[in-house]
Amino acid sequence: MKKILFILAAVLLIASCQLGKVSTEDPEINQEPIDTPDVQQSGQQEPQVDTKAIGEMCSSMSGFGFNVFEGLLEQTEGDVLFSPISLSIALSMVGAGAMGPTAIQIAAAQGLDGFAGEEIAQCYQTVVDRFTSADDLVKVLSANGVWVDVDFPLYDSYKSDIEKYFDAEVATEDFDKSGVVKNAVNVWAAKHTENRITNVILDDPKPPMLLANALYFNAGWGIEFDEDIIDGPFHGVKGDAPAKFFTKTGMFAHANDGALMMLSIPYGNGTFDFVAVVPVAGQTIGQAFKDLNSKSGLRRLQSLVPTQASCNCYVQVPRFTVESDFRDDQIKSVLKGLGVVDAFDGTKSDFCGISPKPLKIEDIIQKDFISVDEKGTEAAAVTVVEMETTSIEGGEPEPEKIILDRPFIFLVRDTVTGAVLFVGVKQ
Questions:
Q1: In what helix (H) or strand (E) does residue 127 lie, and over which residues does it extend?
Q2: Average pLDDT, stretch 377-398?
Q3: Strand boundaries in 238-310, DSSP class E
């Protein structure tokens, strides 16, 4: 049975939370202001969150996630799953202590050059709060952890920032004791992903510091699919493979402009949705993704709203489960290609906001899981950053058939802000 190529990526409205201002050129953004929940404040009053800036950052961060996705797609084969949301959060914790060109490169890769660090941090809080509380029928969890060697001098100001803006748990461990840090991180990862991500650390890490994000998503569909499951072939790039499909005939948000066919299926109350993007006949999945990642493609995606269901469709979606494991410079090489270079070079990296000792990023590890069936979607990811010193008219037509039995792109997104949580390819 052939392997099904599937890549899941994700974008969250977060950034390199350097508490200064980095600037190269202002990003080109076309995003309207959006409503966001209030951020709880305590002690000193925080600056007000600019809701227009949140929309702008969501737009910029979507580009980062798609660019990382494209880089990993080019270097991998078989079933693949990736979460840029988790990567972005972990990078942002590192970025909170970055300075100079190192900070500029991290922010620019994410499309956030020109934004003030404190503004980015405040927006990060707001959007994560929204994701985790926007829909009672959707469970989104995000947790951050930092492990520091007992002999490593961590600045109190940096510790305060990541606790405040990222709600990070900071632990001091003896990296020289065999198994201590590895076990601590693996137990933490399993705890915050409902045991979907285990053994993210395989060997004892080198001192002096690890930063990690755990992300978990679990949601039932906002519509009820038929109970009957259909057996049939999935027409993949390497030939047909047997698959089980769940189906539904009903009203869906749908768009087809001759270049891309898009279908939206809501989760829960409709705050999040699953978007399938099917290439036209003769178009490869790579060509379709480049089309989707263009300005016109992203505008088409923004215009697709699940609550504006206007197409009577017969929908057929395959069940699938995918797990992946990135390490040994796989993510690192993609980020270097996007311009994040100095952070990995001990002669140029500048993380002097973290510690008086020189630091560099040694590697970035990520493990991922997703399962999609007729009940809904469950997905999880853990990213670890290793730091080292250095409408239809005219009657009732026949339902349009949308059968996802050939390669397609898909997304899980927040339908209010437009932020893309996950983007994937199944081929």
A1: helix 117-133
A2: 78
A3: 239-256, 260-267, 272-279
> Where are any strands of DSSP class E within 334-407?
359-372, 376-389, 400-403
Please, are residues 63 and 294 in contact by the beta-carbon 8 Å criterion?
no
Q: At what angle do helices 330-337 and 51-75 cross, to 10 degrees?
A: 120
The secondary element (H helix, E strand) that includes residue 218 is strand 209-220
> How big is the CA angle at 344 (ends 341 and 350), to the nearest 5 degrees?
90
Helix axes 100-109, 84-95, angle to 10 degrees: 160
C-alpha 90/C-alpha 81 separation (Å) is 17
370 versus 78: the higher-pLDDT residue is 370
* Domains contained in the chain, CATH given: 6-220+321-389 (3.30.497.10), 229-320+392-426 (2.30.39.10)
Q: Note if the pTM is more than 0.85.
A: no
Q: Quote the CA–CA distance of 115 and 324 in Å, as a whole number.
A: 33
Q: Which residue in 223, 221, 218, 240 sits closest to 231, CA to CA?
A: 240
SS3 112: coil
Average pLDDT, whole number, for the chain?
A: 82
> Which pLDDT score, from 0 to 100, does residue 15 have?
27
